[in-house]
Write a structure and sequence with these properties.
mainly alpha; about 130 residues
């Protein structure tokens, strides 16, 4: 064998990766993969149950919660906006219904700029 043949044998893929096949990095990678799979599976149990195993039961469990979130039924006359809160073209309907609320007024109204106290100096006084 020549020196060129020995160099090729030293650069062979089997020789280059031989150090990794007996190192703990492969075992650590497998443990990390297993832990990730366990975490993903553990956090997806309720989704899997509601989607594939028992979709009717999931709908029955959601029905009371959705009914509690719906506003109570009111007569049609009570839901019509009053002239003071009539929606403005391009305005958010939620804002138009609650325009007179103190919180909305505080957020939407502009306030005058605060007056700065007169210090008795002018801009020309500060530049020589």
């Amino acid at each position: 064998m020549t020196d060129k043949d020995t160099d090729i044998q030293q650069l062979a893929p089997e020789k280059l990766t031989a150090g990794f096949s007996h190192s703990p990095i492969v075992a650590a990678g497998l443990v990390a993969l297993a832990l990730h799979l366990l975490v993903v599976l553990g956090t997806s149990v309720s989704y899997i149950n509601d989607t594939w195993i028992d979709p009717e039961g999931a709908a029955a469990r959601r029905a009371p919660a959705e009914a509690a979130q719906r506003p109570p039924a009111t007569p049609a006359a009570a839901t019509q906006p009053t002239p003071a809160t009539a929606p403005v073209a391009g305005e958010d309907p939620l804002l138009s219904r609650h325009r007179d609320a103190p919180v909305v007024r505080e957020i939407t109204e502009t306030r005058p700029a605060p007056k700065s106290p007169d210090l008795g100096i002018d801009l020309d006084d500060t530049n020589p």
